[in-house]
Amino acid sequence: xxxxxxxxxxxxxxxxxxxxxxxxxxxxxxxxxxxxxxxxxxxxxxxxxxxxxxxxxxxxxxxxxxxxxxxxxxxxxxxxxxxxxxxxxxxxxxxxxxxxxxxxxxxxxxxxxxxxxxxxxxxxxxxxxxxxxxxxxxxxxxxxxxxxxxxxxxxxxxxxxxxxxxxxxxxxxxxxxxxxxxxxxxxxxxxxxxxxxxxxxxxxxxxxxxxxxxxxxxxxxxxxxxxxxxxxxxxxxxxxxxxxxxxxxxxxxxxxxxxxxxxxxxxxxxxxxxxxxxxxxxxxxxxxxxxxxxxxxxxxxxxxxxxxxxxxxxxxxxxxxxxxxxxxxxxxxxxxxxxxxxxxxxxxxxxxxxxxxxxxxxxxxxxxxxxxxxxxxxxxxxxxxxxxxxxxxxxxxxxxxxxxxxxxxxxxxxxxxxxxxxxxxxxxxxxxxxxxxxxxxxxxxxxxxxxxxxxxxxxxxxxxxxxxxxxxxxxxxxxxxxxxxxxxxxxxxxxxxxxxxxxxxxxxxxxxxxxxxxxxxxxxxxxxxxxxxxxxxxxxxxxxxxxxxxxxxxxxxxxxxxxxxxxxxxxxxxxxxxxxxxxxxxxxxxxxxxxxxxxxxxxxxxxxxxxxxxxxxxxxxx
Length: 622
Fold this sequence. Notes:
- The chain has about 625 residues and is α/β, with parallel strands linked by helices.
- The chain is elongated.
């Protein structure tokens, strides 16, 4: 709260003020000091916390000239005060001299005729003139002098009459009320200034402002951090060479504000907004707000992760992969080396060999582990739907599209990994868009013309020979080479028999966690002799079936053999009936006629794309 001090010019006024302020203005302090002594005291009071000083006459004028950081409220000299003083002085005679500062007797000459006196004016500029002017007044034949405290003192030294122009209690009240109003206004301004300063100091944006004289007036901590400059070395001076890249001084004469500009300052790429400060239609300064671009990118990644990436989490890790065999150990070592890079990975392996397990493990072993892991099966969706899933769309982009639009999986995977399973099933037209996204690291939602930058590592997987498909023009060669930067071939289960037993026991414990049965040695040998065309996925299914049908505390070879005999391998070579051969021919002809565009081939055959995909599998056309 603002502090107020009443500075009395003499003891009599101090006594009168003490009683008044004690009763009505207890928050106002009281001190005594006249003219130059009062000015010295005002400087000391300002240093000790006084914000407002109430005083009068020459003392008030002297404090203003000295310039301490205080507000001066002057006690007014009313017309009634002057009249009362002149009336008192008339008892000494009608010739009266006024020896005072002009500010104490405004319009006093107009009282000559009104009061019937001969008023003679002796204005003071400096307090040291008092003795000389009073002596001059009496030499000129005045009967008495009127004025302030020093005028009366000078008259008393000469043994002549001097009458003090005293301030009434009403004048003191007026000054005290005015001081209160100013104190309240100052407190409000300080509160606002404190709020603005807190906002500026705690803002994440760097903020720099200059005035019309090109001197820095605002330089917040964020600006200091980004520029490497100390505020005390910047405030009150023209922008240093480190800040000239902002071009803030040019804004004083610029025709318009400059928003959203990217520039380099102190070796950093920053996003900067520059605005002119105007008062009365005139530019009186300029302010720049700026942020490190990398900080904006990190914040954008956090927003995308929070809004879009809910539930996209990789759970598999390398230490959870059963790898007793040398082949699998080498595969894990290679995958861990790949995880330390940011290059695309192509995972090759038969159906059920664990391609997604490796993709998740690579993600969790990489620097992107805290980002999202987003997976999609490219064979599960028609081309247009897959495109909208990958790249997203704006509202109304196509029939049935959400009015709000939808982010694509590339946006969802920003800062993380996008796993494209069954990449060989992707339509050639969509392959081209995927290639561009991988090369440019930019995507556009369907129906939009806005570019979205994405930071995504792509891991693709297939159980087909992509190189052969490239030779047969069924897969784009440029996309193949873009994906095939790092290649990981997962060995089939039959090539790593040392892993069959541990995997079976693991799956058995998962299927019957309370009391898992034990596999006999013969049962494990029986499992090892099987070729496992469905790989780990098939092994897990078989073990779950064994856990369901076993009777007792162990599983023997006979039960294993019976379950395996009942199982019909999904990829077993079956003899084709004539009907099958005819259907195979129709499918091959349709695919060739449509240049292996599966969407178009399915339409030609009058079936859905999913049905075409299933028939290809059934008829061995993979």
